[in-house]
Amino acid sequence: MKLRINLYTSLILLCSLTATAQKLPYQNPNLPSETRAKDLVKRLTLKEKVGLMKDISDPVPRLGIKKFNWWSEALHGYANQGPVSVFPEPIGMAASFDDQMVFKVFDAVSDEARAKNNDYRKKGESQRFHDLSVWTPNVNIFRDPRWGRGQETYGEDPYLTSRMGISVVKGLQGPSTAKYRKLLACAKHYAVHSGPEWSRHEMNVNDVNPRDLWETYTPAFKALVQEADVREVMCAYQRLDDEPCCGSTRLLGQILREDWGFKYLVVSDCGAITDFYRSHHSSSDATHAAAKAVLSGTDVECVGYAFDKIPDAVKRGLIKEKEIDKSVVRLMTQRFELGEMDDDKLVSWAKIPLSVVNSPAHQQLALDMAHETITLLQNRNNVLPLSKSLKKVALIGPNADDSQMLWGNYNGTPAKTVNILEGIRSKLSPNQLIYDKGCDLTEDKLTETGVAESNFDGKTGVKATYWNNRNMEGTPVATDQITGPIALTTFGAHQFAQGVNTEAFSAKYETVYKPSFSGEVVFKLEATGFSELFVDGKSVLKNGSWRSLPSKINLPVEAGKSYKIELRYKQLNNWAANLGFNFGKEIPVTFSALLNKVKDADVVIFAGGISPRLEGEEMPVQLPGFKGGDRTDIELPSIQRRCIDTLRKAGKKVIFVNCSGSAIAMVPESENCEAILQTWYAGQAGGQAIADVLFGDYNPSGKLPVTFYTSLKQLPDFSDYSMKGRTYRYMTEKPLFPFGFGLSYTQFNIGTARLDQSTITQNQGVHLTIPVANTGRVNGTEVLQIYIKKEGDTAGPSKTLRSFKRVPLPAGKTENLVVDLPYKSFETYNEDGGGLSVQPGKYELLYGNSSDPKDLKSVKITIK
C-alpha cells in the first residue's frame, strides 16, 4: 500500500512539474513579448544576462535560449551570403524617388533573409551575418560627396531619406498586424554621422547648431521610430558635444526614449564601446565604458566586448543589476517578437522556402529597380537613345567589364550578374561592337603580367595548393596550375578549386619569376580575407580585410635572375573569399592604339567613374584622390579624363556612363561628352538596365538625390558639420547638376497649381491640384517635387522637400495630380522654444521637377 501511495505521489509530482514547465510565462506564446521577457530575465544569472548583450549572443540551454547573432546586414540584399538577389546600392534607389518600389525590394530582401535563415537552422548552423536582426537602413544625411559611405544612404535630403527609410523598415519587418516580425530592422548611425571615415573613432562633433540637429540630422531617425516602428537603433562612433554617441544620455535617453518614445533596442556600432577608453578617452577602462554605455541606454555591444566587464562594474557599484535587466528585457522582447523562441509551426515566416531566393520574380524586381535608378544628366542633340542599327559602337572604360563594381558595398553575391559589356552585347551583333578597357580606374599605367615568364616544377604559371582549414595544415585537398593573373572568388558559391570549401580554407601560390628585363616590377594584391606575399622568403606585402581592397608594391629586378614568389591566403570568419594577384612590368597608358581600334565607331560609350573598391567604410586605400575610403578629390580620376578628352579630340561622340556611389564633379565631361548617364552601383541586373536605357528600351526617370558640385571649391571643410553652404538646401552657388534633376527621352510640362485654400489654421493640411502633361512622343515618367520655404526665415534653408510623386504618363496625356501636404509639413525650427513646430506666417510652396529655381513654380499660403 505504501509503495502504491509513493508511486501515485510521484506521478502527481511529475505531472505537476511537467505542467509547470509548460506553463512558465516566458514559454507561453499567447502572452505579450515583454511579459515573457521579464519573466525570463528573472531566471537568468548576471553572467547569463551579460552573455546575451553581445552581438554574438551566448546560448542558455537550461532555459531554451539559443545562440543568436544580432549583427547581420541587408543594405540592398541579404549581405555576406550567396547566392542572393543583389539590388542597386541605396543611393541609386534614392534616385528613383519611388518609396513604393523600395518597399517591394525590401519585402523581397526579408523573404530571402528568412528563407536563408530557415535553411541555416535546419542544418544546425548559427553564424554571424546569418540571422534575423539586420543592421539596415543607413539614414545618415549624405552631407558631403567626399564621404565614402554616402553610397549606403538615401541622399542629402531629410524628407527623402525619411520616406525611403520608412519603406525599408516596413519591408524588412513585415506587417505591423502580424504576430511576429519578419526581421528586426535598425536605423543607423545615430546621430550626426557622415564622415570622415579616418577620424570617426576619435572625432568630437561640437559645431552642430540646434537648427541643423533638428531639421537635418535627426528627422529620419525620428520618422523611423515614430512612423515605421523600427525595432533597433544603432548609435554612432564619434562624440557629439563631448559625449560618445553610444554613451550619450541626451541622444539615447532624453531625445530617443523620452521625447520620441522609443522603447526597443539600441545596439552599438562595432567597437564603439571600446572606443570610449581607447580613442575618445572619455572612460578610463572597459569597466567604466561598459557601465557608461548601459546606463546611457545601449543594450547590445558589437565587437570589443567591454560588456564582459559588466559584472565587475556591478560589483564596484558603478551600475546596479536592475539597469542590466532593463537592457536584457528589451533585447529578449525582440527575440520573442521574431518568434525564434517559439515553435516554427506558430511562425508563418519560418515556412518561407529557399526557392524564393533570387527567384524569377526577384530577378525582375532587381531589373525594375535598376531601371528606375538610372539618371540622365545630359543629352545634347538627343544623341540618346542610340539606334540598334548603328554600324559600329565602341564600348570603352574600366567599369565596362566589371561585375563586382555593380554590387556596391555591404553586398551579397548574386548567382548571375549582367555587367555593362554583357548588357550592351545583348543589343548588338558581334560585328557591331568594339570593346577595349582603354584605361585603369585611377592609374596611368597598365601591367603586363609576369606570370608568362614564371614557372614552377617545369610548368608555366603559378602552382596553387589548397587546404580545407585556415592554417595550411595536413594533407592538401587540391592543387592547380594557374597560367594568368589570379582572380578567384567564392562569390556566387564558387570554389577556388574543385574540392575546396567556400569557408575555412587556406591556400599557397608558388612560382619562380625570371624577368626578361631589369627595372621595377609592380606586385598588385587584392583580397577579402588575409594574404601575405613573400619574395625570396621575405614578407613584402600584406592585405587583409572583410572587404576586397587593393594594395601594391614596386620592387627592383634584374634580367635573367630567378625570384621565388609565394603568396599565402586564408579565408577569415564567415566572409566571402576573394583574391586578386598580378605582377609584372608597368607600361604607361597611350591612346594611339585605342584610337586606331575605334576609328570606325559611330559613337563611343565610355563606362567609367569609380568603384566600391575605392570608396567605402574605413578602407586602407591610399591612392591619389582617396583616403581611408573617403575621397580627397571629387573629380573623375585624371587618366579617365585624359581618355575621354582624347576620344573627343579625335572627333568621336562620347556617351559617358558614370558609375559611382557619390557625386562626381564632371565639369570637363559635361563639355566633352554628348550625353551623361549617372548609373550608381546598379546591382545584379545593372548592365542590362544600363543597356536598356542607352538603346531606348527604357525611358530614364531617375532624379539626383544629391547635389553634383562643380568642384571642392563649392564645399566647406569635410570635418565641419555645419550645414552652411552644403546641399541644395544651403548652398548659394550654382551646382553642376542640382538635387532632384534628371532628364527623360520625352518632354513634360507642369502646369499651374490650384490650392483648395490659401489660408489654413492649426492642424489643417493643404491640398494642391497640379496638372502634369507628357508633351513628347514617347511614354515616360516624371517626378513631381514639392518644396516649402517660410518667408522671412533668412537663417533657414532656401527650400526643403516636403512631397514627391512619380507620374507615369503616356505620350500626349495629362494628369491632374492631387498632392496633400499635412500640417506638419510646415514644421521648422523654433528659435524660441527649440525643436520643430509649425509657426504662423507666410509660406511659399515651390513645385516642379528639380530643386533648380528655373524648374520651379510657386504659390503662397498663410498659416494663422
Radius of gyration: 29 Å
**C-alpha geometry:** globular
What is the share of helical residues?
10-25%
> What ranges have pLDDT less than 50 throughout 5 or more consecutive residues?
1-5, 7-21
* Secondary structure category: alpha+beta
Could you give a short account of the major beta sheet? 11 strands, antiparallel
Please specify the SSE layout and strand pairing.
Layout: H1 2-22, H2 33-42, H3 46-52, E1 56-57, E2 68-69, H4 90-95, H5 99-122, H6 158-173, E3 186-190, E4 204-205, H7 210-217, H8 219-226, E5 232-235, E6 239-240, E7 243-244, H9 249-259, E8 265-268, H10 275-278, H11 286-296, H12 310-315, H13 321-338, H14 360-373, E9 375-379, E10 393-396, H15 403-406, H16 420-425, E11 433-436, E12 445-449, E13 454-456, E14 459-460, E15 462-467, E16 478-482, E17 486-489, E18 506-513, E19 519-535, E20 538-557, E21 563-570, E22 578-588, H17 592-597, E23 603-609, E24 626-627, E25 630-631, H18 638-649, E26 654-659, H19 667-672, E27 675-678, H20 686-694, H21 727-730, E28 748-750, E29 754-755, E30 759-760, E31 766-774, E32 780-790, E33 800-809, E34 814-821, E35 827-829, E36 836-838, E37 841-848, E38 856-863
Parallel strand pairs: 3-5, 4-6, 5-8, 10-11, 10-23, 23-26, 26-27, 30-38
Antiparallel strand pairs: 1-2, 6-7, 9-27, 12-22, 13-14, 13-18, 15-16, 15-18, 17-22, 18-21, 19-20, 19-21, 19-22, 24-25, 28-31, 29-31, 31-34, 32-33, 32-37, 35-36, 37-38
Helix pairs in contact: 2-13, 3-13, 5-6, 5-14, 6-8, 14-20
Pfam family, one: Glyco_hydro_3_C
GO biological process, one term: xylan catabolic process
Domain PA14: 457-599
